[in-house]
Structures are given as structure tokens and as C-alpha cells.
Design a protein that fits this description.
Strand order of the largest sheet: 1-2
Number of helices: 10
CATH architecture of the largest domain: Up-down Bundle
CATH topology of the largest domain: Four Helix Bundle (Hemerythrin (Met), subunit A)
Strand content: under 5%
Shape: globular
Oligomer: single chain
Largest sheet: 2 strands, antiparallel
Distance between the termini: 34 Å
CATH class of the largest domain: Mainly Alpha
Helix content: over 70%
Number of strands: 2
CATH superfamily of the largest domain: GntR ligand-binding domain-like
Order of helices and strands: HHHEEHHHHHHH
Low-confidence stretches: none
Mean pLDDT: 91
Length: about 210
């Protein structure tokens, strides 16, 4: 969905109002499917539907970010642990192929393609865990964090660290080392959280106003 991509990649800033007329022209779609897309993104947590304001790109408060990353770290850690125990050779080969594609995007510094491939790798690890309840919960929580996870790679040093962690994930999966992969996945998400908080504290990522302010 092109609207989701624009929001995730920051082409539409957090807190910005979604102007249906402008978006319909830009995306070359009619208002009806656009409204359905906005409702879907609202269900995912990327868009907020506000009284008297309409649809705006969602913003999180700092504590929301901390809490949500704490939860997704636990979910990703469990996904990694179960995937290391249950992954098939074919699934491992698919993740390895995606990793090579992702590395090529990283070499080109093509963050858009990198993020898309990165997200697919995380989804594949989750799918390899073979726990439908875990997958549903993961998809719901992770949807709220897509834009923030994308921005966590804006710092070159932190982006390089994330790439190195992904290489280690592949090694742990291949070795079927469930405890090591669980620990690494949790650490990986904690690093993402720290990168996002750093952006927020430096004023490079807008925070939502607290209730009553």
C-alpha cells in the first residue's frame, strides 16, 4: 500500500493531517478506496482518527515507545527461539536469500528496499515459529512501530550494527541455537528502541502531546 509506505518512510510526517483530496490526486486513486486504506491504517495504529480533525499520522508519547518496544522485543525473542527449533531447510534458505538481497540494498544505501527486505526477514522468522497466536499478536504490535523502526536506521553507525546483528541471526538460525537467537532478537529490538528514543530526545522525531497539555 503506497500510503503506508509514505507514512512509514516519513514522507508524511507524524501528526500531519491526511488530506483526502490531495492524496487521491497524488496516489491516483478515488476517495472510496483511499478512505478504506485510511481505516485500515487506523486499525494498525499508523493513523489516528480524531474528532473534528479527521485522520492524522499517529504520534506516540515517549513512554508509549518504551512500552511498545518492550513488548515487541519479547515477542521477537520468542519468535526467534521457536523458529530456531522449528525452521525447515526451505525456510532457512528463503531467509538467507532475503538477507543477501538486504545486504545489497545496504551496500547501495537504499534504505527503502533495505527496510522492506528487513521486515520480510522478521516476518519469516515469526512464521517459522509456527504459533498463530504469536503471529497475530506480533503483527498487531509491530504495525504501530513500522515508521519508528524505519527511522532507527537513520544513524549510519546504528544501521551498521543492525546489519551485523542480522548476520548473527542467520548464523544462530542455521545452528538451531534457540537461546542465542532469543537473546539476540531481544537485544536487536532494544537497540532499535534506543535509536528511536535518541531521535526523539534530539527533537528529530516529534512526540505526541501528553493528555491535558
Amino acid at each position: 500500500m503506497r500510503l503506508r509506505q509514505r507514512i512509514v518512510e516519513g514522507q508524511i510526517a507524524p501528526g500531519a493531517k491526511l488530506n483526502e483530496r490531495e492524496l487521491s490526486t497524488q496516489l491516483q486513486v478515488s476517495r472510496t478506496p483511499l478512505r478504506e486504506a485510511i481505516k485500515m491504517l487506523a486499525a494498525e495504529g499508523l493513523v489516528a482518527l480524531l474528532p473534528n480533525r479527521g485522520a492524522v499520522v499517529a504520534q506516540l508519547q515517549l513512554q508509549d515507545v518504551v512500552d511498545t518496544f518492550e513488548l515487541i522485543a519479547g515477542l521477537e525473542g520468542l519468535s526467534g527461539e521457536l523458529a530456531a527449533q522449528r525452521i525447515t531447510a526451505a525456510e532457512l534458505a528463503e531467509i538467507r536469500a532475503l538477507h543477501f538481497e538486504m545486504m545489497a540494498a545496504y551496500t547501495r544505501r537504499d534504505l527503502s528496499s533495505y527496510y522492506r527486505l528487513n521486515a520480510r526477514i522478521h516476518d519469516c522468522i515469526n512464521a517459522a515459529a509456527r504459533n498463530p497466536v504469536l503471529t497475530r499478536t506480533y503483527l498487531t504490535v509491530n504495525a504501530r512501530l513500522q515508521a519508528l523502526r524505519f527511522r532507527s536506521n537513520f544513524d549510519e553507525r546504528k544501521w551498521q550494527r543492525a546489519v551485523e546483528e542480522h548476520a548473527a541471526m542467520l548464523d544462530h538460525l542455521a545452528a538451531r541455537d534457540a537461546p542465542a537467537l532469543r537473546a539476540l532478537m531481544v537485544q536487536h529490538l532494544q537497540h532499535k528502541r534506543d535509536a528511536v528514543i535518541d531521535l526523539m530526545q534530539r527533537g528529530e522525531l516529534p512526540l505526541a502531546a501528553k493528555a491535558g497539555t
